[in-house]
Design brief:
single chain; alpha/beta; seven-stranded mixed sheet; 7 strands; 44% helix
Length: 236
């Protein structure tokens, strides 16, 4: 069970579902359906060009809003170098993905449950000495179709695509990739290089998330105006 202390500040889709940011993640959830009309994306890799772009927070909140919509979701931490999902969800990381791969443990039995209905979180587990070799193995490739038999969606967090080869290795194994870009920080040529690396790996890029965008004050006013009108209509 989750050792959750009640705040989880990075999980705004769960802790503050009426916020502007939560609404943005619900929009992302809706757009996934439009991006994959002919070929549904149920296993999705979330990566970024560089570190601190917000890929792990994006993966976590996307998993939350999918679960809130009634889908069964498994969120997997495949960043086997600097994993953070266990910190975001405030759970222990003694066992996780690497235990499932190396010790043939059941991912469902190892995953954490209980914070959000329909959502399970499989943390990284102990960091291996050879992450890229492990992620390129047949065991990992066989894992995804097995998980999709048990979950509606599998959301996978990975290292930044330009830092190491891990994201490119995973990208070809999953249905689609979401690339997270940090506004006003990630240079255009860096974003293009990340895109090219994914395409070379035969990845299917289904969307780009522009993260940490500064919203004009008037946009906040519009949003809260409509939220207030919704509440008034409910009372009527």
């Amino acid at each position: 069970m989750f050792k959750h202390n009640g705040h989880a500040p990075l999980l705004l889709a769960h802790t503050n579902p009426r916020s502007v940011i939560s609404e943005a993640f619900r929009t992302l959830r809706t757009n996934l359906g439009f991006a994959a009309l002919d070929r549904p994306c149920r296993s999705i890799l979330v990566t970024s060009a560089g570190p601190e772009d917000g890929k792990s927070t994006t993966a976590a909140n996307l998993a939350v809003v999918l679960a809130q919509a009634g889908h069964t979701v498994l969120l997997v931490d495949c960043d086997l170098r600097k994993p953070v999902l266990h910190k975001i969800f405030e759970v222990e990381n003694h066992r996780g993905l690497t235990n499932c791969l190396l010790q043939e443990m059941d991912p469902v039995a190892v995953a954490h449950n209980g914070l959000v209905d329909n959502l399970s979180v499989l943390t990284s587990g102990p960091i291996p000495p050879n992450p890229a070799e492990l992620l390129a193995s047949g065991r990992v490739r066989a894992l995804w179709p097995a998980l999709l038999e048990r979950f509606d969606y599998v959301i996978v967090d990975s290292p930044p695509v330009l830092a190491v080869t891990d994201a490119a290795l995973l990208a070809a194994q999953l249905d689609g990739v979401i690339l997270v870009i940090r506004a006003a920080t990630t240079r255009v040529e860096i974003a293009q290089e990340a895109r090219d690396q994914l395409l070379k790996a035969s990845a299917r890029i289904i969307g780009v998330v522009l993260n940490q965008v500064k919203m004009p004050a008037r946009d906040y006013h519009y949003y809260y105006y409509y939220r207030r009108r919704e509440k008034e209509e409910v009372r009527l």
